[in-house]
Amino acid sequence: MKKLAGAFVIACSSIAWAAPPAPLTTLKAIHSLSHAEAAKSPEAAFEATVTYRRANESNLFVQDGDEAIYVYAKTDFKMSPGDRVLIRGKVHDTFRPIVSADAVTVLGRGAPITPVPATYDQLIRSERDCMLVRVTAKVQSADPVISSG
After folding, report:
1. Domains and CATH numbers, the chain
2. How far apart (Å, rounded) are the C-alpha atoms in residues 91 and 101?
3. How would you write the pLDDT of the chain (149 residues) with one tens digit per residue?
4. Are strands 133-134 and 116-117 parallel, antiparallel or unpaired?
């Protein structure tokens, strides 16, 4: 009976001291999460290049190779498009996984990102979501509106 109790204590202590899962370190790994996995808010720590930033709305798009993601930057991190950054935060489940940044560290200027061509169909299906793209279009009509001040 004592051996069973001792084994139980050892088993419980090994569970209690288990290491937390390692942070996701690539955008590909984040994008490969299922909705259920993303809903568990796993940690993420990855490098990418800033392609778009609107500080007054906490919006940040970053890209690494042919992968891009939306980052919610809760505070005013000092950075600009073209900066290579290290982002640490948590993944959240939405339409696509996003990252809520706890910390953004500017590592320096990144290699320029070449915009990829995008078609209308790719854009309306969000196939190039958060990516730096190049489009050709003809404006048929416009209704100017002031947004975000």
Report:
1. 20-134 (2.40.50.140)
2. 9
3. 445 555 544 455 555 566 778 999 999 999 999 999 999 999 999 999 999 988 778 889 999 999 999 999 877 777 889 999 999 999 999 988 999 999 999 999 988 889 999 999 999 998 899 999 999 888 899 888 877 65
4. parallel
